[in-house]
Design a protein that fits this description.
Chains A, B, C, D: Pfam families: Beta_elim_lyase. Four copies of one chain form a homotetramer. Chain A is of the alpha/beta class. Chain A folds into two domains: 95 residues, Aspartate Aminotransferase, domain 1, CATH 3.90.1150.10; 244 residues, Type I PLP-dependent aspartate aminotransferase-like (Major domain) (Aspartate Aminotransferase, domain 2). Helix content of chain A is 41%, strand content 17%. In chain A, a hairpin with a 7-residue loop joins strand 9 and strand 10. Chains A and D meet through helix 1, helix 3 and helix 10 of A and helix 1, helix 3 and helix 10 of D.
Chain lengths: 357, 357, 357, 357
C-alpha cells in the first residue's frame, strides 16, 4: 500500500495496519523464549501449544495448523495446494489475490477467475453462475475450471461477510464440488466487529482452509494456516518448504500465536481499532466527506477533494486508494491494534477541520 | 470448440475450420519430400526456404521464423518469451488466451490482464488506460505490470483490426515501452477479406512477433512464428524445446509453408471461404436471424431460436457459442479453405428454411 | 541430435531415425482421410479406432489413449500429471529427460533425480536404494521425494530392458508406492528386436503409463500415450491443452496410428532396421572399431579415431555423441524404418574401408 | 535438519544453529523500534540504514540490498532472477539447493546441474569443464545451459572457500559469461574463522549476488541479499513479492541488520562458535572418533559407532547426517552465536566419555 505524500513532521500513522511491531504481550513472550533451545521448522512445543489453542478456539480438534510468514505467501501456497493443475481460483476482482500480489497466484500456474460486482464481496449467486457457465460450456475442457473460492474476511475494502453469506457460499461450493478458502489477514478486526456473526468455529466448519492473520493483528509477522479437516493437503510442510516459505525458527511465530490465543486475546484485540475506525468514519461523514465503503472493521475508505487531501496529509499518513473520475482521491485510513485513542482523537480533530469551507 | 448436437447423416461440416487435413497442393508437397532425408528440428532446406519466402512476403529480410505445431502452444511460448517475469499480457476478455487455452498463459506463470469492451477488439485507448493505471498506482510494484499486448487478426469473433487501429495500438505500445503480438491463427481469412487493409508487411512493421496460422489455413498442422527483428528472443529454439514444442521433423511443417508461400497461395486461400461466409451471413439476415457480430472473415455468429437451431442441426454441424439470456442460442458457423461452394449452397438453402414461420 | 560435419554430396542418412516422413502406408492413409470432415481435438472416429486397436494390442481393454505431437512433450506432460508437486522423477543420468529435453521436466516444476551406473539402464536395486535413502533420511520432508520411475525402452543408448528387469522395477515401485513410466520413442525397434521379451501387454501390465512412439517409428509425427488403468490422470485432455500440446487436428495422428495398428504393422516395422543395425555393428567390429554399447536395436554407438571419423563422414551422416578422453569420438548411427537395404549395404562397405590401416 | 533421537532431559542443544532466537543486542533493538511507526515493505529508515551499513562493510557503495525471510527463499528468488529461462544453476551435489530445499529451484523452473567431487566444494576446473562440455556439445540447444554458479560460504559441510578459490571461480564465470552467487546462510562463521581470507568486500567484488545470513547468525529471521552492482535484477521487489517473499514489516529485519552491522558485530559474532567447534572437533579426535570433514567453521561432522551415538544422544541433541555403509552414523554438531562456553565444556566432557572402551 503506497502512502499519500505529505511530509509533515510526526504525521499520524494511519496509512496501514502493519506499521508497528507487535503487541507488548507478544513481544514479551518472544523475549521469554528467546534463548530457550527449540527444534526448528515448527516442530517445537510453542508451535504445538499454539496449534492446540487455535484448534480449541476454532472447535476443530483435528485441524492441521501451519505457521507461515505473510499473507501473499500463505495465499499462494494454500491456493496452489488446494487446486488441481487444471483449476483456477474464483475471487472478487478487487481481491488481494486479484490485484495486489504481483501475480503470485499465476506464478504458481493458476488463473484467478475474477468476478466483478457492486462491492468487494463475492456472492453465492455469482460464484454459482461462474461454475454453471463452465459446466454448461461445451468447450469446458479447454477452459480453466473453477476449483476454489477465495474470499477475505474482512474484504480488501473492510467489509464483513455475514454467517448467512458464508453459508450460502459453502452451499454453492458443496453443490459444485469445489473448495472454499478464507484469507484472514485482518481477521481480528472482523471477529471483534460489532455486527460480526462469524466466529472461528464457523470458519472451521465452512471452509477447506483459512488463515488467522498475525502480521496485521499484533504479531511481528506470521499467519496461522488452518486446514480444519486433517489430510486436506498431504505433505503440506514440503509444499511450504518447496516454495521457500518454511521458517527455520518456526517457534518464534508459534510463541507469538501462543501468546495471542492462550486467553482469547486474539478475539478481543481488534475491538479498539474497530471502535476508532467507527469514530473516524463518523467524523468524515460529519465533515461532509463521502465514505466509499460502509465502515465495518478497521478501515475507512473516503473520497476527498484535493484541498481536503492536502490538509489531511499535512498531519496524517493515509493510504492511497485510487484517483476518482470526478477529480477526488479515494484514501484509506486504517486503525490497528497499535493505534492509541490519543492518536484517534487527534485524527478526528484533523478530520473536523476538513469541513470548514 | 464443441459442436452442436444433431446427429443427422452426412451433416455439413461448418462447426470449425480445422475439420479437414490440408490443401491438396500442401499434401502433395509432403508426399514429394516424404522419403527425402532431412535434418531434424527445423534445420532443413525446406524450412529454410519457407522462412525466406515468409520474410519476403512480410518485407522483413531479417525476420526470424520458427515453426510450431499449434496456436495455443505458439501463444504460450511466444508470450512467455516476450514477457519479463513481473509482467502480464493484456488481452480482450474474449481473447483465445483469456478463455480457450485452459490457462496455458498462467501455466507459464503470467497473468492475462483481461480488458472488456463492446466487441472482441482491444482499443488503443483501453490499453493505454490500463498501462497508465498501472504506472500511476502507488502500489504498482505489488501489481502485475502490463508488458505485452495480445490481439488476434481476425479476432476470436471474426472481426478485423484496421491498419489504423493496429498503428494506434503500436503507438501506445511504443509510448508505454511494451510489446505487441498478433495471433494469426486465421490470418489467411483476414488477408483475403474484402475490407482488409493490413498486410503481412504491416504485421512485420508493427509487431514484436506474430504468427502465420497454418492449422486453420490449409496445412495439416503448424504455425509460423515470426519475430520481425532478429535477436528479439535469444535462445528461442531452446525455449521451444523446453516447452515440448520443438518438432523433431520440422521439415514437414517447413515444406507445407514452402508450398503455401512460394506463389502467394497463402494470401489468396482465404478468399473463397470469406465469400462463402458472406453468403451465409446474408442468408441468415434474410431469414430474419440476428447476426451477433458483423461478418468480416470466415466466421458467422448468429442467434437462433430453439426450433431454428434444431432444424439447422439436423443438417449442419455448427459450433456452440453460448446460451443467450433470452433463450436463444449463439452459434458459430465457420467456412474454411476446404468448404466447397456446393456445401455452401446447401447451407444457404438450409438457412432459408429457418425463416418459414 | 547434432550431425557430424562432413559435407559430401548425397551422404547416407544415418544420423538419426527421424530424417524422413512417414511409412508409405501411413501417408496413404492420411491422403484417404484428408478431405473427410472430422471433429477436432481427437474426438474423431479414426482416433477412436486407433485407441481401440492399441488397447487390443496391449491387452488393456480399459486403457486411456491420447495422441501427442512429440516425445519431449509427452514426457513432460505425463510425468507432471503422474507426479505430486512434492515429488521428482527418477531417471538414468543418461536418460532423455535428464539430458536432452532442455530442462522440460524442471520447467514443469519437478526435479529429475538422476541415478548413474555402468550403463544406460536403471536397475531395480538402484531405484530401491534411492527410495530407501529418502525414506530413511530424517530430513526427507526437506527433500524431493522419488515419485515415479522413468525408463525408455529401448534406452537412449539402444539397450533393452528384459521382462525380468521391468518386473523387478515394478516390484520396487509397488513396494515404495510410486509409479513406473516407459518412454517408447523407439518402441518399435524394441518390439521387433531378436532378444526382446517385452511386449505391449507387458508394458500395459507393468506401467502406470507408457507411450508408443510414432515420430521415430513411421509416422509424420505423434506419440500414443497409454494409461493402462482408466482414471489414472483425470482431466488429462485439459492438462494437455494447458501445456499447448493438444493437436487441433488430432484425427491426423489418430489415422496414422490406425494404419500402424490395424494389422500389426507397428510390431513388425522395426525388424528390418534392427537387422541393418546388427550388420552395421558387425562391420564395425570386423573393422576393429570399438562398440561402446552392445547393439540391440536400431542404434550403433561406436568409437572412431579421427581419421576414421573423417572417412566415415565423407560418405555418411552420423550422429555426434561425445568426445572421448582418449581423443576418439563417439558416434551414433541409427537405422530406421526408412533405411533401405541398399543404403545399409553401402554403409557396410564404407565401414569396411575404415579397417585399412 | 532432523535431530537424533535421544530424549534425555535438558539435552545440550547442538543439533543446529537455529534453535534459539536472536542475540540480545538484536532483540533489544527490536524492542526499541517496536511501537515506532514505520512504512512497510522495506521502505523504512532502519532498512535504509542497514543497507548503507552493509554497503559500507562490503565496500560496495552502489550495492542493492534486500531483506528476505529465509535461506531457501533467498536462494530460489535470487537464482531465478539471475538465470535466463533456458539456463540452470551449477552446484555441488551436496549443496543446499541440490538436496535440502525440497526442489525449490526446480519449482521455479530451473535445473540444478549437480557436480560431484571429493568434498563439498565446487572447483573452478569442474565448473569450467561443465561449461565447456555444454559449449562443445552439438546438441547444446537441447540441453540446459549452465548459467550461474552457486556456492555457499561456508559449504553445507562447514568448509571454507579460500580467496584464491573464489577468484578462480570468478575467472571461469567471466570466461564463460555466467554469474556467481554465494549463499551466506552461515557467513558470520566463515568471516570469523581463523583460516578465512574472504571478506565481505571480496564477495561484493567477485559475485553477482550473495546473501548475508541472519537466521543462523544472530537474528530472529532474515537474510540480506546483496547485488553488488545496481541494476543486476530490475524489478527485484516485484519478483520478491510475486514469490510471496516480501515482508510487510520489512523494518523488523532491517532493524536487526542495523544492529548487527553498526559496529562490526556481524564480523565478530561467529568467533566464539568457531572456537567452540574447534574444541569439539579436537575432543572427538582425542576420543578416537573420525571427523568426516575438516572442522573449519561452526560445524563438526563426525562418524560414531552405535554405542557412542547412544551415549552422546543421551546428553546432546545432534543433527542426523547419514547412515554410513560400515554401520556407523554420521552426525553433525553445530555450535552457534548462542552456544555458551559452559555448554561447550559439558559437550567436551560428554565426548571424552565416548573414548572409554
Amino acid at each position: 500500500m503506497g502512502t499519500t505524500q505529505g511530509e509533515g513532521p510526526q504525521r499520524l500513522p494511519f496509512a496501514s495496519d502493519y506499521e508497528r511491531g507487535a503487541l507488548p504481550q507478544v513481544l514479551e513472550r518472544l523475549q521469554e523464549v528467546n534463548l530457550e533451545p527449540n527444534p526448528g521448522y515448527g516442530a517445537d512445543a510453542h508451535s504445538e501449544r499454539a496449534r492446540a489453542l487455535i484448534r480449541e478456539a476454532a472447535g476443530a480438534p483435528e485441524a492441521e495448523v501451519s505457521f507461515l510468514a505473510g499473507g501473499t505467501q500463505a495465499n499462494a501456497v494454500v491456493i496452489d495446494a488446494l487446486l488441481a493443475p487444471w483449476q483456477g481460483v474464483v475471487a472478487a476482482d478487487s481481491g488481494h489475490v486479484s490485484v495486489h500480489e504481483a501475480g503470485a497466484i499465476e506464478a504458481m500456474g493458476h488463473k484467478v477467475i475474477e468476478l466483478g460486482g457492486e462491492d468487494s464481496k463475492l456472492t453465492a449467486e455469482a460464484v454459482d453462475a461462474a461454475c454453471q457457465a463452465w459446466e454448461q460450456d461445451e468447450n469446458r475442457e479447454h477452459m480453466v475450471m473453477p476449483g476454489l473460492v477465495y474470499v477475505s474476511q474482512p474484504t480488501e475494502y473492510g467489509r464483513l461477510y455475514s454467517l448467512a453469506e458464508l453459508e450460502a457460499l459453502r452451499a454453492v461450493c458443496d453443490a459444485r464440488g469445489i473448495g472454499l478458502y478464507v484469507d484472514g489477514a485482518r481477521l481480528a478486526y472482523a471477529l471483534a466487529a460489532p455486527g460480526n456473526d462469524v466466529g472461528l468455529a464457523d470458519l472451521a466448519r465452512l471452509t477447506d482452509a483459512f488463515y488467522v492473520g498475525g502480521t496485521k493483528c499484533g504479531t511481528l509477522l506470521g499467519e496461522a494456516v488452518v486446514f480444519p479437516r486433517p489430510g486436506t493437503c498431504p505433505h503440506f510442510l514440503t509444499l511450504v518448504k518447496r516454495r521457500g516459505a518454511l521458517l527455520a525458527k518456526g517457534f518464534l511465530v508459534g510463541a507469538q500465536f501462543e501468546a495471542l490465543f492462550e486467553d482469547g486475546l486474539y478475539q478481543r484485540l481488534g475491538a479498539r481499532a474497530d471502535a476508532q475506525a467507527a469514530r473516524v468514519a463518523r467524523a468524515f461523514e460529519e465533515a461532509g466527506c463521502e465514505l466509499l465503503e460502509p465502515q465495518q472493521t478497521n478501515q475507512v475508505i473516503v473520497a476527498l477533494e484535493k484541498d481536503q487531501l492536502q490538509r489531511l496529509e499535512a498531519r496524517v499518513e493515509a493510504g492511497f486508494w485510487s484517483h476518482l473520475a470526478d477529480g477526488r482521491t479515494a484514501v484509506r485510513l486504517a486503525t490497528s491494534w497499535s493505534s492509541t485513542d490519543e492518536e484517534a482523537d487527534v485524527l478526528v480533530d484533523v478530520i473536523r477541520t476538513l469541513a470548514s469551507k
